[in-house]
TrEMBL record:
It comes from Alicyclobacillus fastidiosus. Residues 16-473 form the Aldehyde dehydrogenase domain. Signal peptide: none annotated. Belongs to the aldehyde dehydrogenase family. Keywords: Oxidoreductase. The keyword Oxidoreductase applies. It comes from the Bacteria. This is Aldehyde dehydrogenase family protein.
Length: 478
């Protein structure tokens, strides 16, 4: 299927612009060239920021119903071009066509949620007379937009993660500059196309394509930028936090999510949920199941069933309706994952299934007997690899789950509400899923983590808080 995309141009000041220097956009499945996008320069960043200054004033002056209308129209435009968006997501990234369609649907929901949350930008009356000094004073507080938001997005959800930043920012009345991943810039450009078709005023949104080394520093350090929303790796997040200065920061920096399976769990449900959670999107998912801690009485049965189910997954052509797992985002990433598995094996880990690489494809891999100091345990694999551990009970499982410098989400399978509640209290994460894998999320919930998994929360309602400030108003009636 041929898809018409707005490659060769980026979106600045409400205009589609070209540049002499271009960046290839390639399909990781076969390295075929899909399109080109401009390689933006520091001068392009300055132009985008100057436009965003005007755009921020314009966005702040828009009425709530106008913002809502634009967001709903944007969602409607994407809905009417659903397959075009899905094929683009699948071709430029790692997702299968079925996974890409689900992402398009989630993007539509994110934009519609953003429209609805715009009506809830409310404040409260403050009882100033609670203090004698406040006699004959009345007032309130309300939320106002911070101004210019820079959104830096990754490759693994190239449409919905952009919408998760742009939708709430526009609902709040901000201007937004998006810097998408250079592996998957086309989906972000198509989102800009949808906003343009919906009537978003020029200068409120820019999507600037370019190498992070050329434009990233200026985007996050510019004094006119009042907020940075970043989804990506821990090292980059730490660097941004040191560079950005006094501005709002919201960061989701990944994880190596744990799941605990206790002896009383529904074993079939636990296996199916964790297999899907481990290998969806070829494991390139910040919520993906990476470590599973199984109570000893059911360990052997769980490993056997999990391995058997993993072997049924179909690896292949992303655009085939039968495919479960596509390639990683690049052969380089597949080689890295392969090296991490090889390291674990050299230290005593056992490959129950998988462990083979073919170009950018890496077979879904199940490891047991993995030493706790291996990279596949300590770091974020971001690939189709899961490690299974036998534990004596909940206490050991929680201690091991908490032993890494990440804490995004966790899952636990048990029929015992007391054990579930104990895990909820003790797990050092931003979310605990009971009788679900760590991979469960809806776009309305607060989403974020602790420790190296980031700061702040996404989820439409909660992003709106990140993109706004409180202003207190007091009338002296004396």
């Amino acid at each position: 299927m041929t898809v018409q995309v707005l490659g060769r141009k980026m979106y600045i000041r409400g205009m589609w612009v070209e540049r002499e220097n271009m960046i290839d956009v390639r399909d990781p499945q076969d390295d075929s060239l899909i399109d080109f996008v401009p390689a933006a320069t520091p001068q392009d960043v300055e132009v985008a920021i100057e436009a965003a200054k005007d755009g921020a004033m314009l966005a702040a002056s828009m009425r709530t119903h106008q913002r809502m209308n634009i967001l709903h129209k944007t969602a409607d435009y994407i809905r009417s071009h659903c397959e075009e968006y899905a094929v683009t997501i699948a071709r430029e990234g790692s997702k299968t066509i079925r996974e890409a369609r689900r992402e398009v649907e989630r993007c539509i929901q994110t934009l519609e949620l953003s429209a609805e949350e715009a009506r809830h930008l409310q404040g409260e009356v403050i009882p100033f007379d609670q203090s004698p000094a406040g006699d004959k004073r009345v007032g309130y507080y309300y939320r106002f937009p911070i101004g210019i938001v820079v959104a830096i997005t990754p490759f693994n959800d190239p449409l919905n993660l952009v919408a998760h930043k742009v939708g709430p920012a526009i609902a709040t009345g901000n201007a937004v500059i998006v810097k998408p991943s250079m592996e998957t810039p086309l989906s972000a450009l198509m989102l800009a196309k949808a906003f343009s078709e919906a009537g978003l005023p020029p200068k409120v949104l820019s999507v600037i394509t370019g190498h992070a080394n050329d434009i990233g520093d200026r985007l996050v350090t510019h004094p006119a930028v009042r907020g940075v929303s970043f989804t990506g790796g821990l090292a980059t997040g730490e660097r941004i936090s040191k560079q950005a200065g006094l501005k709002k920061l919201s960061m989701e920096l990944g994880s190596n999510s744990p799941v605990i399976v206790l002896a009383d769990a529904d074993l079939d449900k636990a296996v199916e949920s964790t297999v899907q959670g481990a290998f969806g999107a070829a494991g390139q998912n910040c919520l993906g199941v990476q470590r599973v801690f199984i109570e000893k009485p059911i360990y052997d049965a769980y490993v056997e069933r999990f391995t058997r189910r993993t072997r049924t997954l179909v690896v292949g052509d992303k655009l085939s309706e039968e495919t479960d797992i596509g390639p990683l985002i690049s052969e380089k990433e597949a080689i890295r994952v392969e090296s991490w598995v090889d390291e674990a094996v050299s230290m005593g880990a056992v490959i129950e299934t998988g462990g083979q690489r073919d170009g950018a494809f890496y077979q879904p891999t199940v490891l047991t007997n993995v030493p706790l100091h291996c990279k596949v345990v300590r770091e974020e694999v971001f690939g189709p690899v899961v490690s299974l551990f036998c534990v004596s009970g909940l206490e050991e499982a929680v201690d091991l789950a908490n032993s890494v410098d990440y804490g995004l989400q966790a899952g636990i399978f048990t029929q015992n509400i007391h054990l579930a509640y104990s895990a909820i209290q003790r797990l050092q994460v931003g979310g605990v899923m009971i009788n679900d894998s760590s991979d469960f999320r809806v776009d309305a919930m607060p989403f974020g983590g602790v420790k190296g998994s980031g700061i702040g929360r996404e989820g439409v309602q909660f992003s709106i808080r990140e993109f706004s400030e409180l202003k207190v108003v007091c009338f002296n009636l004396n």
